[in-house]
Amino acid sequence: MSATTTTRVDMHVKILDERVVSRAKARGIDVLVYAPHFVRLPDARARAARFSDDDLLVVPAREVFTGSWRDRKHVLAVGLSEPVPDFITLDGAFAEFDRQGAATLVPHPEFLTVSLTAEDVVARRDDIDAVETYNTKALPRGNRRGRDIAREAGLPGFASSYAHLRGTVGEAWTEFDRDIDSEADLVAALREGADRRVVRRTGVSHAFRGAVEFAHLGYENSWGKVDRLLLSGMEPTHPSHIAYDGRFDDVSVY
Predict the structure, then answer these.
(1) The sheet that has 31-34: what strands, in order across it?
(2) How much is the pTM?
(3) What is the maximum alpha-carbon separation in the chain?
(4) What is the C-alpha separation between 242 and 248, in angstroms, rounded?
(5) What domain of life does the native source organism fall in (predicted)?
(6) Which of 78, 120, 124, 252 could potentially form a cystine with 116 if both were Cys, beta carbons 3.0 to 4.6 Å apart?
(7) Can you list the domains of the chain with their CATH numbers?
(8) What residues have CB less than 8 Å from 91, skipping those under 6 apart?
């Protein structure tokens, strides 16, 4: 009888370079899902291809910011074939993910003010493929809430390091009971509800990495936001950007 094949997937990282790849490999990760903020899909795809090799597959994805800055709900799409902007309605995002046959995931449910609520997840569970039940950046009560929401909605879970900092890569992962050798394999595993385990590292070091990631929110929500809103001009993923050719005008919130 052959041994069961498993694949370790860190389901959501924000950074990607040689040091990230080295750390992922050292921690036994087979697949990284790379979903940087405010980066268009073709650019993320090109960078993912650059850092993929026989030992580590990097899959590009988009964490789409639906709604306005005052009413944000993040949704993670894996397997997009065409770019999808931020700042569109939640209905518009779900419709586009479905049209493209992407896997639709709920990252960090009920995390601060940027997430789908339990009510959102239950109402849309037929269009959702998995709910994040462990996120290194989240506090313990937040991860417990994620598990509760997934259970209430009857949806599979997943885990990610949600690494915004290199040292967090590989702190948590989703272990699928199958080979995943391509982006299409990962999308199929997610959409089919493939068997999996949610796994994380433990101990003082892991707790420290989570605390550092959580503290990084201070930068993201202060200087990082000022830079995006006031200094950098129009976001590359704004629906009015020329790259989208007006395709999302009807669902844009700006």
Answers:
(1) 157-160, 130-135, 103-106, 73-78, 57-66, 31-34, 7-13, 172-176, 196-200
(2) 0.92
(3) 61
(4) 11
(5) Archaea
(6) 120
(7) 7-244 (3.20.20.140)
(8) 251
